Amino acid sequence: MDPVIDVFKQEFDRFHGILLQQVDACPSEEAWLEKTGKFAYWWHFMHVLSVVEYYALPLGAPSRQKYFSRDVVMFKAEPDRALTRDEVRSLAAAMQELAHAYFATQTEKTLMAKNEGASAALGKEFTNLNALIGLVRHYNYHIGCIDSILRAKGKPGIY
Question: Which InterPro entries did the record assign (predicted)?
Answer without folding.
Answer: DinB/YfiT-like
